[in-house]
Specification:
Structural class: alpha/beta
Largest sheet: 5 strands, parallel
CATH superfamily: Ribokinase
CATH class: Alpha Beta
Oligomer: single chain
Strand order of the largest sheet: 6-1-11-12-13
Radius of gyration: 18 Å
Number of domains: 1
Distance between the termini: 30 Å
Order of helices and strands: EEEEEHEEHEEEEHEEHHEEEHH
Helix content: 25-40%
Number of strands: 16
CATH architecture: 3-Layer(aba) Sandwich
Amino acid sequence: MTEESAKVICIGQALVDCIVRGKEPYRENVDIAEAIILNTGGDALNEACVLETLGCHAKLICGIGRDPAGDLVWEKAKSYGVDVSEVVRSERLTTPIANLTVDKNGGRKSCNSRATMLEGFYPELKSLEGVKVVSLASLFRAPLDQKDTVVNLVKTAKEAGAVVCADTKIPTFRQLPLSDLAEVLPMIDYLFPNEKEAEYLTGKKDYMEMAEELYRQGIQNVIIKTGREGCTVCGKTRRFHMPARKVKAVDSTGAGDSFVAGFISGILAGDPLEGCCERGIRCAAKCVQRMGAV
């Protein structure tokens, strides 16, 4: 029996999160927390694992080191059934570890090191047979923070007839202006910034104004993830807001990635734009009710 080919390729970051929840001062130089856990994270890994739980076979393309953190990433992807045949494991890379502080309402702050730059790793699309969607899962962060890399990936995906999705991040160690990608922005079918990322990219405050500004850059459909408020959408034929589900949020880590994975499952199912958003919102609601990204 031949192995099922992946329908989605997720390209971007895979790392380990050290999550500290409910930190409070205790005494001089000592804090206490409700919980401190290690979990895998990174947009590409999160998306791929959630897609697998939704019955959509995914391939992961990322760079990790041959270190304990890399072992965690590798085993997590394999345990979910993700295709890891194009994951690059190298002695030259250090698998990134992010420190996340989560407050009692589920909000979070992160701290990242220069390991996230993934120096020397340049992802490629080697085989697109059977692939329906290519997801640039962490646009503006390594390895998707260099113009030539992003342009080549988008063009290769479109030449193969794949739908191109892009989830965004606010740049850290390298800056890649949106204007540098002008030639391929019209090839991006769905862009998924959250409200802070959209404000960073547009300078706007209103959600619909953010979406419309990004749409005017040539992107086919802009879906702004607005956390507990849901999402705001601007496309060729539809402009709407869809509310989030009311749930008790424990940890928002990975909620945006779960939204994107749910949305992509809708694309594969042939759902209309509203149906894809509804799938995304359901997945995000499921994610925030537990600690960790997946």
